[in-house]
Amino acid sequence: xxxxxxxxxxxxxxxxxxxxxxxxxxxxxxxxxxxxxxxxxxxxxxxxxxxxxxxxxxxxxxxxxxxxxxxxxxxxxxxxxxxxxxxxxxxxxxxxxxxxxxxxxxxxxxxxxxxxxxxxxxxxxxxxxxxxxxxxxxxxxxxxxxxxxxxxxxxxxxxxxxxxxxxxxxxxxxxxxxxxxxxxxxxxxxxxxxxxxxxxxxxxxxxxxxxxxxxxxxxxxxxxxxxxxxxxxxxxxxxxxxxxxxxxxxxxxxxxxxxxxxxxxxxxxxxxxxxxxxxxxxxxxxxxxx
Amino acid sequence: xxxxxxxxxxxxxxxxxxxxxxxxxxxxxxxxxxxxxxxxxxxxxxxxxxxxxxxxxxxxxxxxxxxxxxxxxxxxxxxxxxxxxxxxxxxxxxxxxxxxxxxxxxxxxxxxxxxxxxxxxxxxxxxxxxxxxxxxxxxxxxxxxxxxxxxxxxxxxxxxxxxxxxxxxxxxxxxxxxxxxxxxxxxxxxxxxxxxxxxxxxxxxxxxxxxxxxxxxxxxxxxxxxxxxxxxxxxxxxxxxxxxxxxxxxxxxxxxxxxxxxxxxxxxxxxxxxxxxxxxxxxxxxxxxxxxxxxxxxxxxxxxxxxxxxxxxxxxxxxxxxxxxxxxxxxxxxxxxxx
Lengths: 290, 339
What we know:
heterodimer, A: 290 residues, alpha/beta, Rossmann fold, 9-stranded mixed β-sheet, 13 strands, 28% helix, B: 339 residues, 2 domains, 5-stranded parallel β-sheet, 9 helices
């Protein structure tokens, strides 16, 4: 019996290492100036998917990502670690999407995939930190959701038991498949690349990437269907254009400001005994401490 | 119609601080917009909720009392809010940026096709001009939040969709009682009218909620450490100083990520926002994301061996030196002079 898992993943700018040219003049993010990485919590989600795949006979794991052509990199990266393949949803109609328009597009793509038993994704992406896409995809598909999963404890007769990590505690919950599960960063890290799989899939490509390689490779790819990464544009999914991109995004950015803090006039001290003792005496005298 | 709604988080019959903070903010927004402040409580045994929230100026309190609504699960609470909002058409809906609010908010916003901004650090009312459409919108909610790892601050608006939804972390807004004697109107909801039996599809089997042992937010003195502290072992010095002064130990994201301190001690945009009387920053370079969570401290002392650390710019006192050198001296001279 088949068991189809989809992992929603995002290629994100590495916001932990932001340089000066990271913003364009219009206030939008200059993604080209930043290293693009696999969103960390989506890797935690991939690991959960791969664990299920090894336990369930006939299970498949596919990645779904929305982004520019180069986002195919994270699909390949997933295949190196054990995923079966993936789908890239790409096109200018998706540009300017907020979380709601993104969720709508992803939900349309998932519907097109046929029978899906489980949708996994990271809790949130490091470029927006919103944690909205998982629950919104679930709502768009009319599926239940379990957020902040740390461990999938059991899966039997289409019932899944999950340990959730909350801000102030832990919960064990049980629900019926199909559903959407968002995975927390505290879940086990993703396994590394597998050497044999990396060799096998390193030439996996989307139709766009294959075109760039030229006609010489047509026979090569025809003989190796497992290297095909599916690429969908807006016309490949059933959609209502008004819910995509900017028009499908209820939130608008009014203004972007760089963060500046007003500097105070600071008193500079050395670590000498006298200066530290004077400071402590002053703090005691003005009742800041003591 | 057209009022401000706050979703209340309730644990053991107690309304969470984050909800009371949002009511305080909601009250002042309602005054500006000349509308009512309404609150929704969903759970079981809600008799004591009114007394807790009316002093914050809640005009109307909706009670959805049903034992199946506690503990929280996503779909029943979503249905309750979605169907109530369809009837009441609020202009603004606020919830905590907590485990619950960040699970519930997106689902509700998707069902209503209304924009949601997560983790706002400030909420204001203002005008928005859509130049392309040639339209001016009055009295919109400015949802102000850091973005892009805290390097920018974005102001988000939802011009056309209602409610305008936002989540806010605990400790970001101040909580303040408006009138201890105020009593608003209570409306008991017929839960079965709002929530379908089929919504109860996820079952909570076990639940261990820890009362946070730490009270960083409420501590008047915070000794906080960054990556520059160097090791979990050196963090012991911070604990020693905090214990001596009667304070708590905080940490920057970098220190938490490095495993020097527990996650619940994290101060900053992605942690807790604090406003203590005294903030001692040890080995903290002063990333924007950290400064945003502590800049309102009454007094800031920065201890750093880098005289050019960005945090020095907002500090009242800058001590150039190592943690190992300075902290023992502070402990020693406090003990000597405090008696």
